[in-house]
Amino acid sequence: MEKELLNYEEIERILTRITYEILEKNKGTEDICLIGIVTGGVYLAERIRKKIKENEGLNVPMGILDISFYRDDINIKGKKKEIKPTNIPFQIDGKKVVLVDDVLYTGRSTRAAMDALMDFGRPAEIQLAVLIDRGHRELPIMANYTGKYIPTARNEKIKVYLKEISGKDSVVLITQ
Amino acid sequence: MKDLVGIKEISRQEIEEILNTARAFKEVLTRDIKKVPTLRGKTAINLFFEPSTRTRTSFELAEKRLSLDVLNFSVSTSSVVKGETLYDTLKTIESYNVDYIVIRHSASGAAKFVADNTPACVINAGDGTNEHPTQALLDAFSIVEVKGKLDGLKIAIVGDIIHSRVARSNLYLLSKFDTEITFVGPPTLLPSDVPSNVSISYDLKKGIKDADVVMLLRIQLERQKGAFIPSLKEYFHVWGLKGDAFSYLKKDAIVMHPGPMNRGVEISSEIADSPRSIILRQVTNGIATRMAVIYLLTRREV
Amino acid sequence: MKIIIHNAWVVDPFTDKEGVASITVEEGIITKIQWGKKEKGEKKHKKNSSNILEINAHGLYIFPGLIDMHAHLREPGFEHKETIRTGTKAAISGGFTTICCMANTNPVNDNPEVTYYILAKAREEGCCDVYPIGAITKGLKGEELSEMAMLREAGCVAFSDDGMPVTNSLIMKRALEYSKAIGSPIISHCEDLALSEGGVMNEGKMSFLLGLKGIPREAEEVMVARDILLSKYTKAPIHIAHVSTKGAIELIKRAKEENLPVTAETCPHYFTLTEKAVDGYKTDAKVNPPLRTEEDMEAIKEALKEDILDVIATDHAPHHEGEKKVPFQEAANGISGLETALSLSLKLVKDGILNLRQLIEKLTVNPAKILKISKKGLKENSEADFIIVDLGYKWKVNKKDFASLGKNTPFDGWNLEGKVLYTFKGKKFFDMSGEKN
Fold first, then answer.
1. How much is the pLDDT for C30?
2. Domain locations in chain A as residue ranges
3. Distance (Å, rounded) from C-alpha C115 to C-alpha B20?
4. What is the pLDDT of residues B61-119, one digit of tens each?
5. Contact between B85 and C213 using a beta-carbon 8 Å cutoff
6. What fold is seen in the domain C64-371?
7. Could you give the CA distance from residue B69 to residue C296 in angstroms, rounded to a whole number?
8. Are strands A2-6 and A32-37 parallel, antiparallel or unpaired?
9. pLDDT score at C437
10. CATH code for A9-72+84-152?
């Protein structure tokens, strides 16, 4: 069974709010950079970057991070997912890095992303922006900017459609 | 896929997956910290029954950059403990509980033999004159980097084809794509009977003038003794790639060599050091490709 | 014990008789052959209280005991591969009551002591007749002739350096001259070692694709041609072992047309398998000469039909598991063939290439003639030496069930048709029918 949680307008509004929160918390764009986590986070980061440009008139640096190599659940016995090349074309030393992801769940992806970032340099601060927080954290991690908190059961699935990949914007709850 | 025994055994789709993954690993190699924790706590053993500094170094770097613990077990054929068969050596190694076995052996089929007899993931680093699959994969990766694709390309492979595992692996790989292959060299070093997508040329110029890619193979210096060629000098004179080739090669043709190259035998310095040559790029790509292969293999459930 | 076999179809090329008969065997001797169908056959065979075993063989066939003129029994020296005891047991279960063992033992059978040893062992532990084949040259080295006359006296029926060719043409010429005087033929393993050097399978596209060094067909043919010329030169009989190529057949055909004293054999694997059996580095299909191509296989079948190939021999070459469980190029050559040979050969009859009589000739009377082994066939008052075969019996090869120590067969798991149910060899009677008495 599928239930739509967010539609296009709602997602847009949330991203606009998160953009303002980022600017407010960091008092502008100085030293800010965005890093989107493959795959959904990359498109969300791009949209936030665009909104910052609309507001502040400048492009903040943006990178793409595939966290596959840092996961703690790499199973030598399991089939691997396709990997996208990471691309962080700037130094992150001393930067305020805003990680962008679509869904925050166990916190393990965020842990992996933070480990990866540490190998790239020594950021001044790492912040986390997510579209959905569905609970069930397994690590002490929380987002600085949360689009929407949706309590879920473990056997439910959250599916995020973004128009860059799926041609539409929608967040759906799937119950088996 | 548990093992990479040969290109023969894998599909075009699997090749593409390896090449795509290698692209991600190539980025890792540009970072300050070139090591990722992906396979932390797992163990790889490099089981080399033939000496090979280059291939072993490339595999070892690939393994270390994936955070594998690495054991090197190098046995030159002369020092193999008398009486111990490959099977027994394998069983001994298995009791170390290794996850990956990289094997180089002088017998064709040795990698398949090892793969069939162990639950560990096995990667063929060259077995006799059969295959050297990671070399073909890194060659393909390098070609795609420069040319953007494999389909539609004309590839000439020049040199000692019959004794070359690199030639076979490349033949199998390129045959899974829409390519035209020409084997070029002296008749004593070319097979008499070839698959239908391959043509044969004993004439260097005719064989390579339409090629998009010219792959040179290493001439084993001892071939002269077996009366395959009269002398290395004569080989270079007739089939060595020399500066005059610039006048008839396609403008955008690239030159490759699996290394180590013999300057003045297969290739002149003029060509080796020209921008046409992507030989050093092949070396870098070797590490990324091998990381991708190791990463993608999956252990058999026991 | 008295055994009466009712209503079997007898095919006996020795006596040139074929038809339904009932045969009585007492104490290892055929006491009565009654031709013609006997009415009132019992449904099943049974043992009477009076110690008479009656076998209703309606629908079954009786052939003289098969003769394998080319086997390796490995004893002395390689008892981990096979012994005379296990090898002859394998022969019996395959329907062979007579086998000739090659000289490449350790020590080599190049002196009478070894021949005596083999014959004594065969008498003590063997289940069937064993005729040794002596070496042509001392130590199979191709340098000095072995003591052929003494070997002949000791019991050798032929001479061969099988496994190794006699490279030196002059030595081969002298061997032919010498053996002619003795009256025993030379069996030649034809291989030009320079052409075959390092080779492990047939040379061709397949060997290139597998990255294995090939043995060209010419390696065999060059030597077949030489040996035919030498036979013509010396007028001495020569028997060409394990023919595997079309070119060799053409040479032998020409020699026969010239009425030269040339005979030849092939083996079941050469008319059943091609080089494709090697794919996947299957060491059980590694054999010398190597399995060839479809074209060669068809030529061999045709040559059997035209009697260019006189004999089907097994080239039974058992090996220990460890000698095959290695990378292909390191694996030993050879197939353990005694227990599948008859079934594989019967396929030639089923496919209409040979008739039953022709097939049995190649497995009995022809090798007996070449080796001058006196065999009488099925005759009253002579030794019981025959087999009862069910041509329609379907079975699956399971190498684990082999009596031979050599489990090296490329036919493991194959479904075959035709099987020996009973072997009679003198006083020995072997029941492989699975029927309960």
1. 96
2. 9-72+84-152
3. 68
4. 999 999 999 999 887 654 455 567 889 889 988 888 899 999 999 999 999 999 999 99
5. no
6. TIM Barrel (3.20.20)
7. 52
8. unpaired
9. 47
10. 3.40.50.2020
Give the active site residue among B12, B54, B91, B237: B54
Is B105 an interface residue toward C (CB < 8 Å)? yes
User: Is B223 annotated as catalytic?
Assistant: no
Nearest CA in chain A to B296: A80
Active site residue B38: no
Q: Annotated catalytic, B165?
A: no
- Which residues between 270 and 299 in chain B have a beta carbon less than 8 angstroms from any beta carbon of chain C? none
How far off is chain C from B113, nearest CA to CA, in Å? 6
Is this prediction's ipTM beyond 0.95?
A: no
Catalytic residue among C129, C162, C296, C315: C315
By percentage, how much of chain B surpasses pLDDT 70?
Answer: 95
Does B40 participate in catalysis according to the annotation? no
Name which of C204, C211, C330 is nearest B130 (Cβ-Cβ): C211
Domain B12-131+284-296 falls in which CATH fold?
Answer: Rossmann fold (3.40.50)
Q: What pLDDT is stored for residue C260 in this prediction?
A: 97
CA C111, C112, C114 angle in degrees (round to 5)?
A: 80
Strand-pair category, C428-431 with C415-425: antiparallel
Q: Does domain B133-283 have CATH number 3.40.50.1370?
A: yes
pLDDT at B200: 96
Predicted confidence at residue B84, as pLDDT, reads 76
| Domains in chain C: boundaries | 2-62+379-431, 64-371
The pLDDT tens digits for A132-166 are: 999 999 999 999 999 999 999 999 999 999 999 99
Q: Provide mean pLDDT across the span A35-43.
A: 94
Residue range C193-221: average pLDDT? 95
Q: What number of H helices and E strands is found in chain B?
A: 10, 9
CATH 3.40.50.1370 positions along chain B are 12-131+284-296, 133-283
- Give the pLDDT band (50/70/90) at residue C435: low
**What's the topology of domain C2-62+379-431?**
Urease, subunit C; domain 1 (2.30.40)
Place of tokens 């479904």: C415
A vs C contact (3+ beta-carbon pairs below 8 A): no
Scanning every residue of chain B, which has its alpha carbon at the shortest distance from the alpha carbon of C197?
A: B226
Q: Which band of pLDDT confidence, cut at 50, 70 and 90, is reported for residue C47?
A: low
Chains that touch C (3 or more CB pairs under 8 A): B
- With contact defined as beta carbons under 8 Å apart, do C105 and C75 qualify? yes
Regarding chains A and B, contact by 3 or more CB pairs under 8 A is answered as: yes
pLDDT digits (tens, 9 = 90+) for B245-268: 999 999 999 999 998 899 999 999
Q: Which residue among C208, C280, C326 sits closest to B191, beta carbon to beta carbon?
A: C208
What does the pLDDT read at residue B78?
45
CA angle C183, C116, C140 (to 5 degrees): 65
pLDDT tens by residue, chain B, 302 residues: 899 999 999 999 999 999 999 999 999 999 989 999 999 999 999 999 988 889 999 999 999 999 999 999 887 654 455 567 889 889 988 888 899 999 999 999 999 999 999 999 999 999 999 999 999 999 999 999 999 999 999 999 999 999 999 999 999 999 999 999 999 999 999 998 888 889 999 999 999 999 999 999 999 877 767 789 999 999 999 999 998 999 999 999 999 999 889 999 999 999 999 999 999 999 999 999 999 999 999 766 55
Question: How far from C313 is each of A160, C350, C416, CA to CA, in Å?
Answer: 73, 19, 18
